[in-house]
Design brief:
327 residues, alpha/beta, 2 domains, 8-stranded mixed β-sheet, two-stranded antiparallel sheet, 10 helices, globular
């Protein structure tokens, strides 16, 4: 039986929520925190959807459980404040716990995994974040590894690592932090751009990028699962539509039969570099230049070759008629 509290962050998607809630109900946490952002006034019919989600949740807690709610009347302004505000509220009431969003479907072993690691690393202030998602395929006999890059969606953490440090305003980040991400300049430049977008651009509505920067700034480590234990089932929602270009594909999840701990607590830099490349798609200048050539110069070059070939072929046929095309 689960002993840790669970925070479930919801909004207006009852279909996805039902699957996630069913998994939580099987785990039977002793304390369940339900956070729901308020409806957006600009969205017709959203108030009714939000109310439907809240009513459904409260009527389906069918195990012995203390339920606490944070149901906002007005929208907080986006996922940044909506999610991070819920997490702050959660950690103001719990010293540690598990966080799930309404489209992140966990396995049952995910809860056991989080609970064991929360207790194991409770006093190790180097560890800041426990993720149930596997961003890349890592070959190791352990069930998880340590990295400086966190994964959200389904995760666990501690109040003493969140409350004193988390902020959506990361404008005070200094140059040293970018060097902590990597000694490679192109990766530093990527995170400079991310910080700029978080402060002044279209990522100001995020919370997970800010949390990543804060963890790196404080030399923290994150636990990433080797085998995916949380699947994102709701790629269509607040930020994505079925026509979006950057929708994360569905990833299957796996039940852990046993939790095997790494022999050492140290950052897996090879895994971090692969996360940069495979998850964040950060490319070197040479790779970007090659891609640019493939997409622009090379097609034009090939088109010109084919055009000249076709003109020469047609000219040969028309020579007898005295008609010639200009190359």
């Amino acid at each position: 039986m689960l002993h840790k509290a669970v925070l479930l962050v919801t909004f207006n998607r009852l279909d996805y929520l039902k699957e996630v809630f069913e998994a939580i109900a099987k785990a039977q946490p002793p304390r369940l925190y339900l956070a729901s952002d308020g409806p957006r006034e600009s969205k017709s019919g959203e108030k009714e959807k939000v109310q439907e989600v809240r009513a459904w949740l409260l009527s389906h807690v069918n195990w012995p459980c203390e339920v606490k709610t944070r149901f906002l009347e007005k929208n907080s302004g986006g996922c940044g404040l909506g999610v991070s505000g819920a997490v702050t509220w959660f950690f103001q009431n719990e010293k540690d716990g598990i966080v799930l969003e309404d489209d992140c479907l966990p396995t049952q072993s995910f809860f056991r995994y989080c609970e064991e690691l929360l207790d194991r690393y409770a006093d190790n202030k180097r560890i800041w974040h426990i993720s149930g998602m596997a961003p890349i395929d890592v070959k190791t006999s352990a069930s998880y590894y340590f990295a400086k890059i966190m994964q959200g969606g389904g995760w666990a953490g501690w109040a003493d690592r969140w409350l004193p440090y988390f902020t959506l305003d990361i404008s005070s980040v200094d140059e040293e932090v970018f060097h902590k991400f990597s000694p490679k300049r192109y990766i530093q430049n990527y995170w400079r751009g991310i910080v700029e977008l978080c402060n002044h651009g279209n990522m100001a509505d995020a919370w997970d990028y800010q949390w990543t920067v804060i963890i790196v700034a404080h030399d923290g480590l994150c636990i990433n699962a080797v085998h995916n234990q949380v699947s994102n089932i709701g790629t269509i929602g607040t930020h994505f539509s079925e026509n979006s270009l950057f929708v994360t594909p569905f990833q299957p999840s796996y039940e852990l039969t046993a939790i095997v701990h790494p022999q050492k607590i140290e950052c897996d830099y090879d895994a971090v570099n692969r996360i940069y490349r495979e998850r964040y798609l950060i490319k070197t200048r040479m790779e970007l230049l090659s891609r640019l050539l493939i997409r622009t110069v090379l097609p034009k070059f090939l088109v010109n070759i084919l055009r000249r070939y076709n003109i020469q072929r047609i000219n040969r046929k028309r020579m007898s008629l005295g008609v010639r095309l200009k190359p």
